[in-house]
Specification:
The complex is a heterodimer of chains A (130) and B (348).
Chain A: H1 3-8, H2 10-15, E1 17-21, E2 27-28, E3 43-47, E4 51-60, E5 73-79, E6 85-90, E7 103-113, E8 120-128
Antiparallel strand pairs in A: 1-2, 1-3, 4-5, 4-7, 5-6, 7-8
Chain B: E1 3-10, E2 14-17, H1 18-25, H2 29-36, E3 40-43, H3 50-65, E4 72-78, H4 89-97, E5 104-108, H5 114-128, E6 133-141, E7 156-164, E8 170-182, E9 185-186, E10 195-196, H6 202-221, E11 230-233, H7 239-248, H8 252-255, H9 261-264, H10 271-280, E12 288-292, E13 297-307, H11 310-314, H12 321-326, E14 330-331, H13 334-340
Parallel strand pairs in B: 2-14, 4-5, 4-6, 11-12
Antiparallel strand pairs in B: 1-7, 1-8, 2-3, 6-7, 8-13, 9-10, 12-13
The chains are: A mainly beta (130), B alpha/beta (348).
Chain lengths: 130, 348
């Protein structure tokens, strides 16, 4: 993820900014200019709740080098109350508890580092509700 | 009168016990648990740093305040573990909190009192009328060298305070600062771990500054120790804040609510601010609260606050410090701890 691309994604990654189509009501995350549901262009901004439910998940045992120290770790598709779905690492959890239906909060975390000298990339990870 | 209109804290969920660290280095755990009054400490995950702690605490502060983040005109973060050497933590935090870009941002550093330093400046800007709201944050993922006494205490966490004039949860009645050049603890540029002067960190450093700042604010405000419902002193270990409080005439009952160090550790810039958050979690309207920080180098900031009726209503909008300390947590072995704190040398 080169720095300019990361920078362009800051509204979605940092503040979970999405859009809702005024035509068909679909919530689109990250925000787009054209609704993938009805191809409408009348979209209103919407900040997603920082909570959701696990739709499906997996456990990564063989990770890319930059995540090697975190294995094994869970990754899940999380659906927010607005109906948006996003993929997020699930942390501060016991791996067997990460199953469909698990209620999670989305917390701001360090996602990755661009090598030892590069920028730090932040975003949201899912944490099971207390 | 200006005061705290919102506050929040965050403590990571991982822990390591003093017993586990002592076992690693062949030390007597009873010496640590009974001498320094330390049982366990928080440990940051690989994905937690000063920025993520500041964002977590800042979000709760904004929730409790119930204000538009765009009205926040200044944000300062005090820490000695800013993740970048050059690039302010505050730039990331304001983006995540939805503050700015019309905002003044700076990172601050003053060992363990950088958090109250940020609060002091934020309060001053609000009092002057320069900005409507300003946030001061103290957060750290503290470093302690392996097999050093600091390893038993250096932990992670922090708290955020939003200052404003309208509808405060706690009014700030008085402030006082006391600063000298005292080389009790330091970290040179490029060095991974801080160094300290051992026993020199006690009388000429911690106690001199904490006692002087507290006596200064008591004299300035005309208040006596018995006027306060709660008092919080910086917590480098369990023993020092209790000893400072006793010397000044405070009772253990006044200190125990904000005395988090036995199970939280020393969160450095987040230490006394997190203790204050624990007090605000329970304080009643009209309660007077004293907080005195300490930062090596050295200096102390003192604040006198008075809780308002609004506090009880707004604090429900966020998790309490005690819930984070006593809630779900995961205990690490020393090996896991060394890995999380990146103390293990790896190949590229």
């Amino acid at each position: 993820m080169p720095s300019p691309r990361y920078w362009r994604e800051v509204p979605a990654r940092f503040r979970l900014e999405a859009v809702r189509c005024r035509g068909c009501g679909k919530v689109v995350y990250p925000a787009r200019r054209v609704c993938p549901g009805c191809r409408g262009t009348d979209l209103e901004p919407l900040a997603l709740s920082r909570s959701g439910t696990v739709v499906t998940s997996t456990v990564i045992h063989v990770a890319p080098a930059e995540f090697a120290m975190e294995t094994p770790y869970a990754v899940a598709i999380v659906e927010t109350p607005e109906g948006a779905r996003l993929m997020a690492q699930v942390v501060d959890c016991e791996l067997p508890e990460v199953k469909p239906g698990l209620k999670v909060n989305l917390e701001f975390r360090l996602i990755r580092q661009e090598g030892h000298g590069g920028i730090l990339c932040y975003g949201h990870k899912a944490v099971p509700e207390a | 009168m200006a005061g705290i209109v919102g506050y929040g804290a965050y403590i990571p969920r991982k822990r390591i016990t003093a017993q586990e660290i002592a076992r690693q280095w062949g030390k007597d755990p009873a010496t640590i648990e009974q001498g320094l009054l330390l049982k366990e400490k928080s440990v940051p995950g690989l994905d937690e740093d000063t920025v993520t702690i500041a964002v977590a605490a800042g979000r709760v502060a904004l929730q409790r305040a119930g204000i538009d983040p765009q009205k926040v005109g200044a944000l300062y973060i005090g820490s000695e573990s800013h993740p970048y050497a050059v690039k302010p933590s505050g730039t990331i935090v304001v983006e995540a909190l939805g503050i700015g870009p019309r905002v003044h941002v700076a990172d601050m550093e003053f060992a363990c009192k950088a958090g109250t330093e940020a609060m002091f400046v934020a309060l001053g800007l609000v009092e002057s009328g320069r900005v409507e709201y300003a946030m001061g944050i103290g957060a750290d993922t503290s470093q302690g060298a392996p097999n050093d006494a600091l390893e038993f205490s250096a932990s992670a966490g922090g708290a955020a305070y939003l200052f404003g004039r309208a509808d405060p949860l706690a009014e700030v009645l008085e402030t006082f600062s006391y600063t000298t050049d005292t080389p009790d603890f330091w970290r040179r540029e490029g060095r991974f771990y801080p160094r300290h002067g051992g026993r020199f960190t006690g009388e000429p450093a911690y106690f001199k500054h904490v006692l002087a700042a507290t006596r200064g604010i008591l004299e300035k405000s005309g208040l006596k120790p018995q006027d306060f419902a709660f008092a919080v002193f910086h917590m480098p270990n369990g023993k020092f804040p209790l000893a400072a409080g006793k010397t000044l005439g405070f009772t253990k009952r006044q200190l125990e609510t904000g005395w988090l160090v036995p199970t939280m550790g020393n969160t450095y810039s987040g230490s006394s601010p997190t203790g204050l958050a624990a007090v605000l979690d329970v304080a009643a309207a009209g309660d007077l609260i004293l907080i005195t920080s300490f930062g090596s180098g050295a200096g102390s900031d003192s604040f006198v606050l008075k809780a308002t009726p609004r506090l009880a209503e707004r604090r429900r909008l966020g998790a309490t410090v005690r819930a984070m300390l006593d809630g779900k947590r995961r205990y690490l072995t020393y090996g896991q701890y060394a890995s999380y704190r990146e103390k293990i040398i790896l190949n590229d």
